[in-house]
Amino acid sequence: MSILDRHLENHKVKTVSGNMMVHNLYTAGIAGEKFLRHLKDQEQIVGSFCPKCKLTFLPLRLFCERCLSRLTEERVAPKEGQLQTFTKVYVDLDNRPLEKPVLIGFITFKGFEGGIIHRLAISDEKKLKTGTKVKALFQPSQQRKGSILDISHFELL
């Protein structure tokens, strides 16, 4: 009997109240995992180089977005980058007001396509302008977990 032949009635549906434990494992993928391991283990921001297009992409990728070649060569980005844009965030991801606003910026690195969105630690916001040079500061090695937050923040140079 196919599903169309069955007589489905919604009043026969049963519900069960309670909690069910669900364990999830979200991965960053193969390239994302390598990128995060470099942050954690070597305190390096790493991108993928395409020998065909002569471009280096950040963050690390498996395939070139231009020619679709497999990318196997890695290049280390400098810890210094350039602030392309920034914003001040007043609410968290659940739309609750933050105690103190957080500055977030998009940072690019010389010789790399793409960049990183991350926290900015700036004491004088008047000095904050697009094009400003910034530097990545990492968490102490014993506190790193293999997350983008292994970079503590970026500060002005």
Shape: extended
Strand content: 35-45%
End-to-end separation in angstroms reads: 71 Å
Overall pLDDT, averaged?
91
Helicity range: under 10%
- Low-confidence runs of at least 5 consecutive residues: none
Q: What Rg is obtained from the alpha carbons, in whole angstroms? A: 22 Å
CATH topology (fold) name: OB fold (Dihydrolipoamide Acetyltransferase, E2P)
The topology string of helices and strands comes to HEEEEEEEE
- Main-sheet strand order equals 3-1-2-6-5-4-7-8
How does CATH name the architecture? Beta Barrel
Helices and strands in order, then pairings?
Blueprint: H1 29-42, E1 45-50, E2 55-58, E3 73-77, E4 80-91, E5 97-108, E6 113-120, E7 133-138, E8 151-156
Parallel strand pairs: 2-6
Antiparallel strand pairs: 1-2, 1-3, 4-5, 4-7, 5-6, 7-8
Short description:
This protein is mainly beta and 157 residues long.
Mind explaining what this structure looks like?
The protein is mainly beta. It has one domain (25-156): Nucleic acid-binding proteins (OB fold (Dihydrolipoamide Acetyltransferase, E2P), Beta Barrel). The protein is built from 1 helix and 8 strands. The protein has an 8-stranded mixed sheet, with helices on one face. The model has no long low-confidence stretch (mean pLDDT 91).
